[in-house]
Amino acid sequence: MNAVADRPSVGELEQLSDLLRRPVLDRPGLGAVLRQIEQGLRERAHDLDQAGGLLDEADKARRMSLAREDDRLRNETADLLANVDDVLRMANVETDDELVRRRGRQLLAGLRGHRNAEASLLLESTATEVGSGD
Predict the structure, then answer these.
(1) Taking the CB of residue 128, how many other CB atoms lie within 10 A of it?
(2) What fold does the segment set 10-125 form as a domain?
(3) CA distance 35 to 125
(4) Residue 53 — φ and ψ, nearest 5°?
(5) Angle between helices 64-92 and 27-51 (to 10 degrees)
(6) Which residues contact 77 (CB under 8 A, 6 or more apart)?
(7) Do the beta carbons of residue 90 and residue 30 sit within 8 Å?
(8) Is pLDDT of 129 > 80?
């Protein structure tokens, strides 16, 4: 397992969630949080590229299915970045607030799902390591 900073943070996702729930959409606040999330995703993608992914080569060699999932998650980061950019653009132009909220909620669900998938991959990798002698 490679050590890579966990971005976007839970706090950033909670800020995004809070902004999307407010009765009046705070577009400047939404833009600021989205830029933080975007920067975090870019840093994470760079770190993962440098490390070769979440899993080290030994983990990948033991289970090809884990290696494929690691690669899929790394590629998904590019899609998430594009989605962040889309919502950021929408928040900066005169677009219907409900449309911005809907796309923001979809982005939030995607970001949370991605974090959960990464956590599951790491847990499965660890479980494989622990149970490998059985």
Answers:
(1) 14
(2) Four Helix Bundle (Hemerythrin (Met), subunit A) (1.20.120)
(3) 32
(4) 115, -175
(5) 150
(6) 41, 44, 45, 48, 114
(7) no
(8) no
Cis peptide before 28 (omega within 30 of 0): no
| CA–CA gap between residue 85 and residue 23 (Å, rounded) | 23
d(C-alpha 31, C-alpha 34), whole Å: 5
Nearest to 54 by CA among 20, 3, 15, 14: 3
Nearest to 30 by CA among 107, 109, 110: 107
- Closest among 36, 40, 38, 22 to 100, alpha carbons compared: 22
- Can you give the pTM of this predicted structure? 0.86
Q: Give the C-alpha separation, 54 to 63, whole Å.
A: 14
Residue bearing tokens 């796309």: 103
In tens, the pLDDT along 75-99 reads 999 999 999 999 999 999 978 999 9
